Amino acid sequence: MRVEHGFGPVWDAGSRVLVLGSVPSPKSREMRFYYGHPRNRFWPVMAAVFHDDGCLRECRDPDQIVRLRRDFALRHHMALWDVIASCDIEGASDASIRNAVPNDFSDMLRQSQISHIFTTVAKAAQLYQRLCVPLLQTHGSDNVPMTRLPSTSPTNAGAKLPELVEAYSCVGRVASGKAVMQPE
Predict the structure, then answer these.
(1) By CB neighbour count within 10 A (0-12 exposed, 13-18 middle, 19+ buried), where does 14 fall?
(2) pLDDT at residue 171 is higher than 80
(3) Which residues of 116-134 are buried (b: 16+ CB within 10 A; e: fewer)?
(4) Strands 98-102, 84-88: pairing kind
(5) Which residue has the higher pLDDT, 33 or 95?
(6) 30: Cα separation from own chain's centroid
(7) What is the 3-class SS of the chain, one letter each residue?
(8) How many CB atoms lie within 10 A of CB 160?
(9) Distance of CA 122 to the CA centre of its chain
(10) Cα-based distances in Å from 18 to 57, 96, 98
């Protein structure tokens, strides 16, 4: 099935980190926002990393959840997007991704304070290196280091919440301006 991303990035001029997934899952596309599967642990991990549970508030209105999470990301200088603008994919299986067209992050990188890129799954890191780095090189925007983090998806059941919080703590340190990281 051909999938178009369907919603844009979250960022502003104050963003210091860019967190990239591969492509939105069916649940995220339905919600029209990042990490929308109810069992994905991204938002609980970020709440723990930043000591702020504003992204976890219970709401019946999906638009309000999106606003809370967008505000949370921007408040913590975090940009969100995905590596892929469109691709062929079966369900939510990153292993099935074919014919991927990358998003171009060059304007975002030039117009913000982003000093580090983090990918949230191995496939995002692989596709970023293969598809995005050459595109960024053509724009002179390829000097931002990238670090691959473990997946917060329910399919990564082996990773426990405390382990994910520890792994993602680097996002909080860089976003808060307390650390500069080198690429992995």
Answers:
(1) middle
(2) yes
(3) bbbbbbebbbbbbeebbee
(4) antiparallel
(5) 33
(6) 17
(7) CEEECCCCCECCCCCCEEEEECCCCHHHHHHCCCCCCCCCCHHHHHHHHHCCHHHHCCCCCHHHHHHHHHHHHHHCCEEEEECEEEEECCCCCHHHCEEEEECCCHHHHHCCCCCEEEECCHHHHHHHHHHHHHHHHHCCCCCCCEEECCCCCCCCCCCCHHHHHHHHHHHHHHHCCCCCCCCC
(8) 10
(9) 12
(10) 23, 25, 24
Report the side by side order of strands in the sheet with 78-82: 78-82, 17-21, 116-119, 146-148
- The single residue listed with the structure tokens 């069916």 is 26
Q: Which among 128, 124, 147, 149 has a CA at the least distance from the CA of 137?
A: 128
β-sheet bridge partners, residue 86: 4, 101
d(CA 173, CA 51): 12
The more confidently predicted of residues 140 and 124 is: 124
- Please report the pLDDT score of residue 90 as a whole number: 86
* pLDDT per residue as tens digits for the range 65-81: 999 999 999 999 999 99
Position 181 scores a pLDDT of 63
Each residue's pLDDT tens digit, 131-163: 999 999 998 887 899 999 999 998 888 999 999
Confidence tier at 180 by pLDDT (50, 70, 90): low
How many residues are recorded in the chain? 184
